[in-house]
Design a protein that fits this description.
Elements (H helix, E strand, L loop, with lengths): L11 H11 L11 H5 L10 H9 L3 H5 L3 H4 L5 H5 L6 H14 L6 H17 L4 H12 L8 H7 L13 H18 L1
Helix pairs in contact: 1-7, 8-9, 8-11
The chain binds iron/sulfur cluster (2 copies).
Length: 188
């Protein structure tokens, strides 16, 4: 784990942007550490989630957006449920990831590749097409054989389907994406 450096200039507009987009008030955090104590991924983070909160209060934009933690967060929401100040910490982590993505600061490229494959599958079929998502991820990430050994086992239990299955209303799902993309273009 890296130790935090709060000496860079405070980026007040970044703090405001995260607060506005997440609807949360980071200044309420008093560094009790409950979120980090419950986070199942802390061991893999470069900065535990409570330190991300401290960095955010200090407006350390570059450190946060270049961190691995915001990409490795699994959005399990344990931090949110444990926070005595009722801060939706997981939503803040989501918001940070969205801003990092927008600014093309992707410290964990494979994770972004997986998100992209997942979202594109839902947009196309209205639901997740597991095999297609996995193949897209494997090809784009270069990890060609990832989970290849699991395929036959899972399929033999009829858990996933080889061919995609659409849902009724998949056009409406695609429209949700379009609305979001339009909104993102307008508001940055
Ligand atoms: S939502 Fe992310 S930061 Fe919060 S506990 Fe889960 S993995 Fe950790
Ligand atoms: S649990 Fe809440 S108050 Fe405590 S360190 Fe985490 S964000 Fe801050």
């Amino acid at each position: 784990m890296d130790s935090i450096n709060l000496s860079n200039k405070t980026d007040w507009s970044f703090i405001e942007e995260v607060a506005e987009k997440s609807g949360q008030n980071p200044s309420l955090c008093y560094q009790c550490g409950n979120c980090t104590a419950g986070c199942p991924y802390s061991h893999f983070f470069d900065y535990p989630v409570s330190q991300i909160m401290r960095l955010l209060q200090a407006g350390q934009k570059d450190t946060i957006l270049n961190s691995k933690a915001i990409w490795l967060c699994a959005t399990c929401e344990t931090c949110t449920t444990r926070c005595p100040c009722e801060i939706d910490v997981a939503h803040i982590m989501d918001t940070l990831r969205i801003i990092a993505r927008r600014e093309n600061r992707v410290s964990e490229k494979d994770i972004k590749t997986f998100y992209d494959a997942f979202l594109s599958s839902v947009k196309q079929f209205g639901r997740l097409y597991e095999v297609g998502t996995l193949l897209t991820y494997n090809l784009k990430s270069g990890n060609i054989m990832t989970d290849a050994d699991l395929g036959p086992k899972v399929m033999s239990h009829n858990k996933i389907h080889f061919f995609p299955r659409s849902i009724k209303g998949k056009d409406q799902v695609a429209k949700i994406y379009e609305r979001y993309q339009d909104k993102a273009k307008k508001h940055g």
